[in-house]
Amino acid sequence: MDRYINAPISDEDARSLRAGDYVYITGTIYTARDAAHKRMYEALGEGKELPLSMENNIIYYMGPSPAREGRPIGSAGPTTASRMDKYAPSLLDLGLKGMIGKGKRSQAVKDAIIRNGAVYFAAVGGAGALLAQRITKSTVIAYDDLGTEAIRELEVKDFPVIVVIDSEGNDLYETAVSQYRKI
């Protein structure tokens, strides 16, 4: 089913999405990769405030290439989500509602998704140039010293993703394999 949602994402929208849905996101999302997640995790451990609120936000696991002239961002393809699995449950417990990446997630992340009514989306790997066309604005908001791994605020218009793990724990990577085996 095709769905169009706004970001930040409401609790109702997050809970209504189902594994396998094609979703087009419009609004504000954030980027963060390994190094940024490590810093946020350490900040939480030290009782410090995070550089952005997690409440109802979506984090895209992406580090862009340099922008060409006249564009807000370069190629913007997803990175492997499992590298953030150590940090994701803590951020989900703080209100993070969505994550965009590629690849499988750990059981701890799935449990945190269910516990918090969140969702894990996949973006198509290898399509970074096409995905970048859906980004209308990119602004570094934290950890500028990390270069491509800095946290960016992105404005997106109909950014295409697929629901992989929904708020009930249904996992498209698992259900698709079992459906294929039946064929």
| Multimeric state | single chain
**Count of individual helical segments:** 6
Low-confidence stretches: none
What overall geometry do the principal axes of the alpha carbons give? globular
Q: Give the % helix.
A: 25-40%
Sketch the major β-sheet. 5 strands, mixed, barrel
Written overview of the protein:
- This protein has 183 residues and is of the alpha/beta class.
- The chain is 27% helix and 27% strand.
- The chain is built from six helices and seven strands.
- It has a five-stranded mixed β-barrel.
List keywords for this structure.
183 residues; alpha/beta; five-stranded mixed beta barrel
Annotate the secondary structure layout.
Blueprint lengths: L1 E6 L3 H6 L5 E10 L2 H12 L12 E3 L27 H6 L4 E4 L5 H10 L2 E4 L5 H5 L2 E8 L8 E15 L6 H11 L1
Parallel strand pairs: 1-2, 2-3, 3-4, 4-5
Antiparallel strand pairs: 2-7, 5-7, 6-7
